[in-house]
Design brief:
313 residues, Glucose Oxidase, domain 1, eight-stranded mixed β-sheet, 9 helices
Length: 313
């Protein structure tokens, strides 16, 4: 079954803003991000519960869920951009009206903790979503031109993006050579692993798996990769792309540790599919927007990734 692609975004369209995970410490970032979107000719509507705090959450589960359902249900809203990641998106999964989302497919953007929502939307509503810039993280101040280019191309044009170009002076690192094609899925290493056994992950067979993370020291990355091995994920996928693992080295000099590369390499050598690392995606400024659910090609012989179909219609 082909995934459902949302309609492309046009100038003058209404963009909904929600916080399904955490709120930023500095709430002025929300206003600044809104100003950026409106300066480009879009209209915005901020969810009524955005900016709330409930411990490390952006309001109660009921409040965050209300904004999510409202934005998908409102016909005038053509795209939904998350304020930030953080913690809490998985708490909503059991209560989401996936039929509502399937009946109202629209652009949905976020990454990090938002991975849980994106994989569940692909599984339960067959919706293509976008792992890309978030309002209070990437769009509130001096938007990175490289990230901005890939972001708006993905959201506004039905044309295939084609071969992706890494930022200047950066190259993909080839771990296992070969060529692979498949549907791209994945996102945050930790959040993807948290969905094992829930029935909310899309099938991994014949897919290209993309993984990234932040703030997970080597022993925790090790623990998650064991999960992937035991769950048989690496035996089903057609190709593997690792983005950036930001702030994932142990900084406590009193602790015995392995380096992150040592942990990654110990598992990557066991993966028998085309594999590359250093892909420009993750908690970085030069983030490539990745439409989960579309077909891609991974060429680990020549070191490039290609989006072979458009993500919107």
């Amino acid at each position: 079954m082909k995934p459902i692609k949302p309609n492309r975004l046009k100038k003058g369209d209404l963009i909904g803003i929600i916080s399904p995970a955490s709120s930023p410490d500095d709430l002025t970032r929300i206003e600044k991000g809104v100003n950026y979107l409106e300066s480009l000719g879009y209209k915005t509507e901020v969810g009524k519960n955005v900016g709330k705090y409930y411990g490390y959450l952006a309001g109660t589960d009921e409040e965050r869920l209300e904004d999510l359902h409202y934005m998908f249900g409102k016909r005038e809203v053509k795209a939904i951009i998350c304020v930030r990641g953080g913690y809490g998106s998985p708490r909503l999964l059991k209560f989401i009206d996936y039929k509502l989302i399937k009946k109202n497919p629209k652009i949905f953007v976020g990454y990090s903790d938002i991975t849980s929502l994106q994989m569940a939307f692909l599984k339960k509503a067959n919706l293509v979503t976008f792992a890309g810039p978030m309002l209070a993280v990437d769009l509130y101040n001096e938007v990175n031109p490289y990230a901005e280019d890939y972001f708006w191309r993905a959201l506004t044009s039905p044309k295939k993006i084609g071969k992706l170009h890494q930022p200047e002076n950066e190259e993909l690192k080839i771990v296992h050579i070969g060529k692979a094609e498949g549907t791209i899925i994945g996102g945050n290493l930790t959040l993807f692993a948290s969905l094992f056994g829930t029935g909310l992950l899309p099938k991994t067979k014949n897919t290209i798996l993309l993984l990234e993370d932040i703030g997970e020291v080597p022993y925790r990355v090790d623990r998650y990769l064991v999960q992937y091995i035991l769950a048989g994920v690496f035996g089903k996928i057609s190709g593997l792309i690792l983005g950036h693992f930001t702030d994932c080295e142990e900084t406590d000099e009193t602790k015995r540790t392995l380096k992150l590369d040592e942990v990654l390499n110990s598992y990557l050598k066991k993966v028998n599919v085309p594999t590359v690392t250093n892909f420009s995606h993750g908690h970085i400024k030069n983030i490539i927007t990745v439409p989960f659910g579309i077909k891609v090609k991974l060429n680990a012989d020549k070191g490039f990734v290609e989006f072979t179909e458009g993500p919107v219609v």
